[in-house]
Amino acid sequence: ATAPCAPRGALIVFEGIDRCGKSTQSNMLVNTLRSRRVNVEHWRFPDRSTKIGQKIDDYLHNGVQQDDTAVHLLFTANRFEKRNEMLRLLAGGTTLVLDRYSYSGVAYTAAKGVPHLDSEYCRSVEVGLPAADLVVFMAMPPEQAAARGGFGAERYEKLDFQRKVAQQYEALKDSHWLTLDATLQPELIHQQVMGAALPMVENAARGAPLGRLWD
Ligand code: 2DT
Ligand code: MG
């Protein structure tokens, strides 16, 4: 076992296919943690505000064609350009709640089925990023997510593709994942999220070491 480190913030990630409720639940988590005086920041990936993020946004809006490997590496670079700030915030005791992270990077690209862009390759370029203390995976049948409002506006929002993404997510699950039934009432889901997130915040505050992808 590794020796305890200094107190830090927790890294909590929400994952799932498009329209499964990640934004709602990550907002609820941030609000409840704040009401309990936890220092917390809410981020999402891709971060479309950077130059790299703007290129990603162009691609997602279907306008700009891009090589699949180049796009994959843009998403990855978009995380690495935020890496130092993530580490700084965590070390300073701020808990980070992320709406998507490396797991989306792997699941969405691997779902394309491009021969050399398999899950193993996709993971390999994420090595060196901090690992999540908790991945909340919001499980929802792709048909149900597709029926929600707003679906279909961006490049990946096609039912057959979302099914493939869901399959890729299945293969990524490890001991840090909590799979929740995203078809339940938001308040019920939130209670389950809190039950898993609070112990992670407490562990991190006690100096549990921050993991590294993909240990
Ligand atoms: P949002 O709908 O959450 O804005 O995401 N994606 C995301 C990838 O393909 N690779 C990644 O690394 C990340 C973080 C998921 C926009 C789309 O971008 C996909 C949906
Ligand atoms: Mg989306």
TrEMBL record:
Q: Which UniProt keywords apply?
A: ATP-binding, Kinase, Nucleotide biosynthesis, Nucleotide-binding, Transferase
Gene Ontology biological process terms in this record? dTDP biosynthetic process; dTTP biosynthetic process; dUDP biosynthetic process
EC no.? 2.7.4.9
The molecular function GO annotations come to:
ATP binding; dTMP kinase activity; nucleoside diphosphate kinase activity
Which pathway is recorded for this entry?
Answer: Pyrimidine metabolism; dTTP biosynthesis
Q: Under the cellular component aspect of Gene Ontology, which terms does the record hold?
A: cytosol; mitochondrion; nucleus
- Positions of the Thymidylate kinase-like domain: 14-193
Similarity comment: family membership: Belongs to the thymidylate kinase family.
Q: What is this protein's record name?
A: Thymidylate kinase
Which residues of the intact protein are shown?
A: 35 to 249 of 271
